[in-house]
Specification:
Blueprint: E1 3-6, E2 12-17, E3 23-30, H1 44-51, H2 61-70, E4 74-79, E5 84-91, H3 95-107, H4 113-132, H5 134-146, H6 160-165, H7 168-178, E6 184-190, H8 194-205, E7 225-229, E8 236-243, H9 252-263, H10 269-277, E9 281-290, E10 295-303, H11 305-325, H12 328-345, H13 349-363, H14 369-377, H15 381-393, E11 398-402, H16 407-414
Parallel strand pairs: 2-6, 7-11
Antiparallel strand pairs: 1-2, 3-5, 3-6, 4-5, 8-10, 8-11, 9-10
Length: 416
């Protein structure tokens, strides 16, 4: 049975045994991400994640990967706006080794200047790769519009100039400020035992001292607007956004159902209208991004320049129609898709620990699958229509376009 335990210094443990498995997923998350950066620090959370694997006083960068791969294991990490996670997949007997490596890279990273110089350029290449992908670029442009002038509106990867300005002192300062025990969650699922995880956590993390100084994040403010990146490419990539809700909002689950019905599955409104009925695009979908204190509802379409105006018009039209009358059948299909996604994800130890860590850092506890399903079941058609109305009425729209386009026309039809 899954449970949460807390060490004396505030480090929280989530342990979720899954009988019958021979492997385990182990992760360590810090409530530290791009949202916590100053303008000068932009990209430092992500660069820090890279540098954690570049050597400690006990292991070189090569030894870190050789040790885990020698037992058939796997290491990785990910940086988001609100948290950074470091995780491993291993066979059950190798859990102590994975714990030791992850604890080592988080407690004792060298931040060697030579390694840092190389890794800065690796990240610069990563930035270039993302910029070269128009579907990535349009998403980044939309984020910048939605939260202009704020940390949530700056790229997680950072900018080339800021990344090249980061030195060991800046990385250490960011880590010391934010990687505090009371803001760390250790999660393990699969072939794991709660007492063993607690023993390993005490051994590796009890020396960290809690200072009780919670991270103060400014509440993000949705801004909106329109921007155009003219590129000589074959398709026009368009991303749209409207004000959404935070992960803590009472309408969070209703918003998830609305977004799924609007553009999640193949039976959704904009997929059926734009792709199936009219053949205007190959890729078209809706999405929602919910942070602790902010959120957006968005849609993406990749289409020909000649079809862009009609595709945007139809997305706007379908959103307005959803606000006035999304059907019970649509809502029930979306609800079923979300419920099946939750239940299917429980079959993966990695999904279990990622979900649990996010919930603990956002809500201070886990939401059981039974409770999640009940909250989805409680959503009514009125709730869903209210989410569409809020998107249309709570603030200006955001419109990001990358590729050949009549931008003034698109901006006019969208209302951005």
């Amino acid at each position: 049975m899954a449970e949460i335990r807390t060490l004396a210094n505030g480090v929280r443990l989530f342990v979720d045994p899954m009988p019958g498995l021979e492997s385990a997923a182990l992760g360590i998350w810090a409530r530290a991400g791009a949202i916590d950066e100053t303008p000068e620090e932009n990209g430092v959370a992500h660069l820090l994640e890279h540098m954690a694997f570049k050597g400690t006083s006990r292991r070189t960068a090569r030894q870190i990967v050789e040790e885990i791969e020698a037992v058939g294991g796997y290491l990785n990490a990910a940086t988001g706006y609100q948290r950074t996670g470091y995780y491993a997949r291993i066979l059950k007997n190798d859990l102590p080794l994975a714990f030791d490596i992850l604890a080592d890279i988080l407690a004792d990273p060298l931040f060697d200047e030579g390694e840092l110089a190389k890794e800065r350029e690796v990240v610069v290449q990563e930035i270039g790769e993302a910029n070269d992908a128009p579907d990535d670029a349009v998403g980044e442009l939309l984020q910048t519009l939605a939260y202009a002038g704020q940390s949530l509106g700056r790229p997680i990867l950072g900018g080339i100039e800021t990344v090249r300005s980061h030195g060991p002192a800046r990385l250490r300062g960011f880590m010391q400020r934010l990687y505090r025990p009371e803001e760390i969650v250790i999660a393990a699922a699969g072939a794991v035992d709660a007492d063993e995880i607690e023993r390993l956590a005490v051994s590796h993390f009890s020396a960290r001292v809690a200072n009780g100084m919670a991270t103060q994040r400014a509440r993000p403010r949705y801004v909106g607007g329109a921007a155009y990146d003219a590129r000589d490419i074959d398709q026009t990539h368009i991303s749209l956004a409207f004000p959404g809700v935070s992960a803590r909002d009472n309408d969070f689950f209703a918003t998830r159902i609305f977004t799924e019905a609007f553009g999640g599955g193949m039976s959704s409104r904009i997929f059926q209208r734009i792709r199936e009925d009219l053949g205007l695009a190959y890729s078209v979908y809706a999405f929602t991004e919910s942070y602790d204190d902010a959120g957006i509802i968005g849609a993406y379409v990749g289409t020909d320049e000649d079809n862009a105006h009609e595709a945007v018009r139809l997305i706007r039209e379908e959103l307005e129609a959803a606000a006035s009358g999304m059907t019970d059948a649509e809502i029930d299909r979306a609800r079923a898709l979300l419920k099946s996604s939750i239940l299917m994800s429980l079959e993966s130890p990695q999904n279990r620990i990622e979900t649990a860590a996010a919930q603990i850092l956002t809500y201070g506890d886990i939401i059981t699958p039974k409770s999640l399903l009940a909250r989805l079941d409680a959503v009514t058609a009125r709730d869903v229509r209210r989410c569409a109305e809020r998107a249309l009425n709570d603030g200006p729209a955001s419109l990001a376009v990358v590729g050949p386009a009549d931008f003034p026309a698109l901006k006019s039809v969208f209302g951005g």
